[in-house]
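User: Can you recover a sequence for this backbone? Please restate the input before giving your answer.

Assistant: Of course. Working from this structure:
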C-alpha cells in the first residue's frame, strides 16, 4: 500500500495522499468507516461511506492512468463530505444502468443513497465527492 503522506489528523477532518490499487480499496473503506463513525455516523452513514469510497477509488483504478490521489473526509453540520482528487479531467457520468448489466451500477447507486454526489473540475484534475447524513433512523447503532 503506497501512502505518500498522511495528513495530520483533526477531529473533524482526515485526509490521505495515496496511490490506490484495486486490492487495497477495502483498507480505505475501513479507514473511512472508522472516521465517519467517530464523527457520529450511524450504521447507514458508515455503509454509504463504504460504498462511496469503494466506487470512487475503483473508478480511479479503472479510468485514471495516474493512481495517485487524495482521499478526504470532512465533517459538516450533520453530514460528512467524502471526496477524492484524481489527476484526470474527464468527468464521470452517472447513468441509469441496464437492469441486467453486471457493471455500471456504482455511481448510480451512490447517487441514490448519498445526500449528494458531484464533481468539481480544478486545474490538474478533479474532485469527485459525495455527502452522507451522519444521523440515521432512531435506534440505529
Amino acid at each position: 500500500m503506497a501512502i505518500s503522506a498522511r495528513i495530520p489528523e483533526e477531529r473533524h477532518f482526515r485526509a490521505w495522499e495515496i496511490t490506490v490499487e484495486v486490492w487495497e480499496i477495502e483498507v480505505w473503506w475501513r479507514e473511512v468507516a472508522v472516521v465517519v463513525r467517530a464523527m457520529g455516523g450511524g450504521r447507514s452513514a458508515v455503509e454509504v461511506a463504504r460504498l462511496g469510497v469503494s466506487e470512487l477509488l475503483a473508478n480511479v483504478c479503472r479510468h485514471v492512468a495516474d493512481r495517485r490521489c487524495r482521499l478526504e473526509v470532512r465533517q459538516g453540520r450533520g453530514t460528512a463530505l467524502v471526496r477524492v482528487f484524481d489527476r484526470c479531467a474527464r468527468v464521470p457520468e452517472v447513468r441509469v444502468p441496464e437492469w441486467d448489466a453486471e457493471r455500471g451500477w456504482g455511481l448510480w447507486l451512490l447517487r441514490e443513497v448519498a445526500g449528494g454526489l458531484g464533481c468539481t473540475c480544478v486545474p490538474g484534475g478533479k474532485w469527485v465527492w459525495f455527502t452522507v447524513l451522519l444521523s440515521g433512523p432512531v435506534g440505529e447503532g
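That completes the design. The first strand starts at residue 2 and ends at 6.
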